[in-house]
Design a protein that fits this description.
globular, alpha/beta, 190 residues, Rossmann fold, single chain, 4-stranded mixed β-sheet
């Protein structure tokens, strides 16, 4: 069986990467989601091991010590997020393309690990103002976390040139067509 490859959608929080990822899953049956781990509590409707592996801080820290993560990061009020190596390898070894919906710094690390076996797409909001409104409309942020996310977004936008392609999500349908085209081309490479 042919080993799969990694596809990364990376963007500041609120840029539309999760929405774009959901559309990709509808169009590509060989694409599987890598479920990340986090120490934050589940949001309404989120299910453990489906949306995230929800871990206690001590459990997360033990996995860090054991080298279980391809990447991990702490932010937004001390909450930790990471990509479990076992989650990715299991799917790659089964011949699937693995989609990672992750933050910028972790994506840089994973891009280095997988090299040519990885496609990294940076989803960029048209402006910080648009991003702020999207986060407000999402209704999941209080004033403090909104300010933290916007501050972090400004930093993350400086990383855009480290990825294979930058796609501006001004119009979701147009952005999706660009993402889909890039993914299709990557999947068809030997």
């Amino acid at each position: 069986m042919k080993k799969g490859k990694v596809i990364i959608l990376v963007a500041p929080s609120g840029s539309g990467k999760t929405t774009l990822a959901r559309r990709l899953f509808k169009d590509f049956e060989d694409l599987k989601f890598s479920v990340s781990a986090t120490t934050r509590p589940p949001r309404e409707g989120e299910i453990d091991k489906k949306h995230y592996y929800f871990l206690l801080n001590d459990d997360f820290d033990q996995k860090v010590a054991d080298g279980a993560f391809l990447e991990w990061e702490e932010f937004y009020g001390g909450k930790k997020y990471g990509t479990l190596r076992s989650e990715v390898d299991k799917k790659l070894n089964s011949g699937y393309f693995v989609l990672l919906d992750i933050e910028v710094k972790g994506a840089v690390n994973i891009n280095k690990i997988y090299g040519d076996e990885c496609l990294s797409l940076f989803i960029k909001p048209p402006s910080i103002e648009v991003l702020k409104q999207r986060l407000i409309d999402r209704g999941t942020e209080d004033d403090e976390t909104l300010a933290l996310r916007l501050e972090r977004a400004r930093e993350e936008l400086t990383y855009a040139d480290r990825f294979d392609q930058v796609i501006i999500n001004d119009d979701l349908d147009t952005a999706y067509e660009e993402v889909k085209k890039a993914v299709l081309k990557f999947m068809n490479q030997n």
